[in-house]
Amino acid sequence: MQEKKICYKVYSQYLKEKYGEKVYKIPINLPVTCPNRDGTIGYGGCSYCGEKGAGFENLSNCLSVEEQMRTNISYIQKRYKAKKFIAYFQNFTNTYMSFSTFKKNMREACIDNVVELSISTRPDCIREEYLSYLKELSYQKHINITIELGLQTVNYRTLEKIHRGHTLAEFIDAVLRIQKYGFQICVHLILNLPWDEKIDVVENAKILSALSIDFVKLHSLYIEKNTMLGKQYKKGEISLITKEEYVERVILFLEYLSPNIVIQRLIGRAPKEDTLFVNWNTSWWKIRDEIEGQMKKRNSFQGRKYNYLHGSALKKLL
Ligand code: SF4
Which residue spans adopt a coiled-coil conformation according to this UniProt entry (predicted)? Predict the structure, then answer.
């Protein structure tokens, strides 16, 4: 069988090379909220954030971390003969809790065959003592740590419009502090926010590259019912780009992105019944295939336009 040639750095392949076999992410759902929902930073959350957060595939958060891990692992082990796992704290803000609760949750996730903890949070919820504890845990348990930061866009005017409750500065601060501990960082971006243009897509790629981020997860904007964005959408106050334009934006983003950054996904997904708009009524994998097909056709690849760092204006003088 002819091997499929992929024009960007694919996460599943990266994991296989790093751990010697396929690794499965196990989602963990904690009973947490977010400072942008409970009034600490703002009420109601980011304009696109629904009641369930990001974890629609999760088990109930009434189960302990260990119960969720063991239940999911035993299912995946049977189904796929899986041997290695990443404990993925996915929903809402997983560092927004007391230090003692945080430590307990992290410890509980370190069961046999877990090779990594992946912790999703906001850039303004990164604190030194939490990072120090993770460092200690990673030594004790021989596991790697990845921090997933929601950013969505580097355009601070758009960040304000979607009520993120932080700007680019808090993101840069978080990245620099996490990197001192040697942890890897995954950044979430939405490439089709209604106020962003292609120039913002390019800047997203440039800033992630300049900061030597490790992973990126791209999402297409989906509009959930009962969200601020949903209301704006129903009133016709926002317009969305076409699927073809989204494909173009992803390709543009990848071309400007450092070839060292691993791509965890090219497009998001959400249950149809909860949304007013999702992925132009097209399966996520069809859009992924379209992006890959277009890149191949054009001889495009990740990093094709990655030539703007390291004093690039001096090149001709050397
Ligand atoms: S930071 Fe995340 S959890 Fe908090 S409101 Fe925004 S999208 Fe929702």
Answer: none
In CATH, which of 3.40.1390.20, 3.20.20.70, 3.30.390.50, 3.40.50.150 is domain 11-303? 3.20.20.70
Q: For 268-291, write each residue's pLDDT tens digit.
A: 988 888 899 999 999 999 999 999
Residue to mutate (ligand 1; options 38, 90, 122; most atoms within 8 A of CB) = 122
What spacing in Å lies between the alpha carbon of 92 and ligand 1's midpoint?
6
Name the residue ranges covered by the structural domains of the chain: 11-303
Q: Whose CA is nearest to atom 4 of ligand 1?
A: 34
Angle formed by the axes of helices 99-109 and 128-141, to 10°? Answer: 20
pLDDT digits (tens, 9 = 90+) for 140-193: 999 999 999 999 999 999 999 999 999 999 999 999 999 999 999 999 999 999
Residues 6+ apart with CB under 8 A from 101: none
**pTM of the entire predicted model:** 0.95
Nearest CA to ligand 1 atom 7: 49
